Amino acid sequence: MNSPLVSVSWLAEHIDNPDLIVLDASSATNISGKKPEFENCVIQGARHFDLKNKFSDSDVPFPNTMPSQEQFQQEARNLEINNESIIVVYDNLGLYNSPRVWWMLKSMGHKNIAVLDGGLSAWVHAGLPTSENHATDYAHGNFTAEFTLRAVVAMEEVKANILSKQFTLIDARSKGRFDGTAPEPREGLSSGHVPGSSNVPFQEVLSNGFMKSEEELSAIFDKLKLEVKPLVFSCGSGLTACITLLAAELVLPNQLAIYDGSWTEWASLETNLIEKQ
Q: Where are the beta strands (DSSP E) in the chain?
């Protein structure tokens, strides 16, 4: 695929391709409190990508953590994902969960994966076909996962980077949470940020559920005066960081990664430094 982002017109044009798989990454609830415009409605033929229960590591205390390569491969095969599959992922909040799924599949070695710009709302408003239920009648896939180690950064690397500055850490939480002036949605967590990190709230790269233009995205990142070194993205739990990472993928040449534990992990340990504005 030529871009990590596709329009509803592109998807409508290719929907009958036998290699195409549409994944619905919508969740029943989300910590942001956002409400979907359309409920009990899915893109016709879409399969449910269960991010919380099937594609997260349940053995760690932090939400949305990347599962093992073996678990990911098995669950992907259960959705009949093949090595040659063309995958488009969407969610019912415009752009929210779907960039996380795009990044996970990309990190596990799948090449032909893109996010549907505008999500379910854009599809419905275009008058394109929907159904009440997800597709369930499909076979077993042959996808072979090959995890890219540099796609994920661990807490110890983030801690060391405060002094070494080997990469730039970009936090996708709101300015208030980043500055320490607004509370965290998770009880007991202090707000603030990792020393030396920069703030690009995920809402800043979006406009009404669509990704902003490449010109607008370039202007946002230009303000950071970034060097040509790796960029690592963080948020509350590794979910919305992928929205800002997707924006960077569209306009920047830098190597990109996610700090998967994100702020939930960092702020839960009293020994970690927390900076406030």
A: 5-6, 20-24, 42-43, 47-48, 86-90, 113-116, 130-131, 152-153, 168-171, 198-199, 206-207, 210-211, 231-234, 256-259
